[in-house]
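Help! Submission page says 'invalid entity' but I think these are all valid:
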Amino acid sequence: MSDQIPELVKGFVSGDEADFAELIRIFRRKIYSVAYKFLGNHLDADEVVQETFVRIYRKRKELGNVKYFSTFLVRVASNYSIDLLRKRKGHSGRDDDTNSLPGNVQLVLSKKVPTPSEEYENKRLMTEIKLALDQLPPRQKLTAILHDVEGFTKSEVADILECPKATVRSNLHIARSKLKRILKDRL
Amino acid sequence: MTCGEVQPFIEDYADNSLDEHTKKQVKEHIDICPDCQGDFDISVSLKVLLRAFTTEEPECDYFEKATSLIIAKTSSEASKSEEVH
């Protein structure tokens, strides 16, 4: 899929509306996912999705100079999400192998088809993670979501947030330290 | 390596982002140090927990509707822009 992105971007820049529609189809879930996890509700995530693509459309002439379309797109979405969070709240601020995990994490994540009680426990866990992330300042929260939840590399996060990789590492370290403290009963 | 030397690398070790030489040194220490092994386990657990963080799916036709709205909005802007020029 990623092989076709540069061609689609090229087409979009030169005015091909079908290529724009295809780019939306490819990236809309990712943008929604980042925005929902950052803002915590559907309405705001929806606003981010729509506004991100409208802004990209307005900036399409600049896209010829963009090295990686996906990180540029997530950057636009991230900036808008941070603005929206501030507007809403004011200025207050892989290892996929689960076999060797301690108690609670393994219990919740090991079943593919959860029983009702496991499903309830899983929802409770997701709420706890959300509340823990909500306690982080916006940049730390976004860094943790992009890297630890969505799986972007540190270099990609640095590109998205337009900061040095060292800042990403530092924000990630602080965010994780706080999350370990908040979620200590789950780890 | 001592605990103090290993600690700054534990998260990178959990991320699997260390070079082979450092990774080997950190592993050798963690294998014999229960405290650092404990810190490593917590880092891995947090990683797994966050990677598993999911949110509720929107309604099944949400993405198609959102795409139509975006295209309608950008097409309307493009038409207005052409009229001006």
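Support: the input was valid. A stray whitespace character was the problem, and the output above is from the cleaned input. Residues 91-104 of chain A have pLDDT under 50 and may be disordered.
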